[in-house]
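TICKET: design request
STATUS: open
ATTACHED STRUCTURE:
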């Protein structure tokens, strides 16, 4: 089985729909993952190059090409080269056509306006995916925000929520023996940092679930002591970096996101009303 996943999001428009589906999908799998977006794919020779690259990089293709001839060509080439390709629009087109009796117009790019805000959001999403869970520290200085967090504190979902608002986010995991890399220490006071935590009972339940897969260090006598030390280590790190500390135990992603954007005056604060 593959230990990492690379998805190509391919579109004959700007590729936002394919990329969003790819992002939502890969976040459900705990593995190394990356996404490459190919936009404005309107020619067969472009498809051929993408298929060749997918073979070289062992990538899966998600595509939203609405031009039927080009879509069929991509399917054919993918099958010939044993590349998995998923047409995410086709099932919905078929369902709507069966329900209404109408045929789709097959017009590309109906949902997008090409403006700076849109492209900034796409760049933020791409950056955030590439800097998930401590990846690519050499470019962490390009982030708008750094999130550090204990297990199960929603680091990745929160990062992606903020990225969808146009904020470039890097996140880094905190554990019992975590030592903060120099790349992050050098950014203290230069880039806003947030430390996520949860209550001790939540962390205790997580550690009980994982007890079979790790051993308690010899220097620690009990699970209770280990969890307490893990929290203490997180708080020491947050204090050293002067992080905004947020307890996520009872808060939802949007509430936490609004707290962060308000505190640091980050762009594109969004509020959602549920009915």
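STATUS: resolved
RESOLUTION: sequence designed for all positions
ATTACHED SEQUENCE:
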């Amino acid at each position: 089985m593959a230990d990492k996943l690379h998805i190509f999001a391919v579109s004959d428009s700007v590729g936002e729909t394919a990329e969003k589906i790819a992002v939502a999908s890969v976040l459900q799998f705990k593995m190394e993952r990356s996404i490459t977006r190919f936009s404005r794919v309107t020619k067969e020779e472009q498809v051929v190059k993408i298929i060749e690259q997918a073979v070289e990089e062992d990538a899966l293709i998600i595509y939203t090409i609405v031009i039927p001839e080009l879509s069929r060509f991509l399917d054919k080439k993918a099958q010939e080269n044993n590349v998995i390709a998923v047409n995410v629009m086709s099932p919905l087109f078929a369902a709507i056509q069966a329900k209404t009796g109408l045929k789709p117009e097959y017009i590309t790019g109906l949902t997008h306006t090409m403006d700076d805000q849109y492209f900034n959001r796409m760049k933020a999403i791409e950056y955030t995916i590439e800097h998930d869970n401590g990846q690519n520290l050499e470019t962490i200085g390009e982030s708008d925000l750094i999130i550090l967090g204990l297990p199960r504190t929603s680091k990745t979902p929160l990062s992606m929520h903020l990225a969808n608002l146009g904020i470039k986010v890097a996140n880094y995991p905190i554990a019992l023996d975590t030592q903060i890399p120099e790349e992050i220490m050098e950014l203290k006071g230069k880039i806003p940092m947030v430390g996520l935590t949860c209550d001790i009972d939540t962390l205790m339940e997580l550690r009980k679930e994982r007890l079979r897969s790790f051993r308690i260090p010899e220097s620690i006598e009990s699970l209770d002591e280990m969890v307490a030390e893990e929290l203490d280590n997180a708080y020491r790190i947050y204090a050293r970096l002067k992080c905004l500390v947020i307890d996520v135990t009872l808060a939802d992603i949007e509430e936490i996101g609004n707290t962060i954007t308000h505190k640091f005056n980050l762009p594109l604060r969004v509020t959602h009303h549920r009915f």
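CLOSING REMARK: The first strand starts at residue 4 and ends at 10. The chain is about 45% helix and 15% strand.
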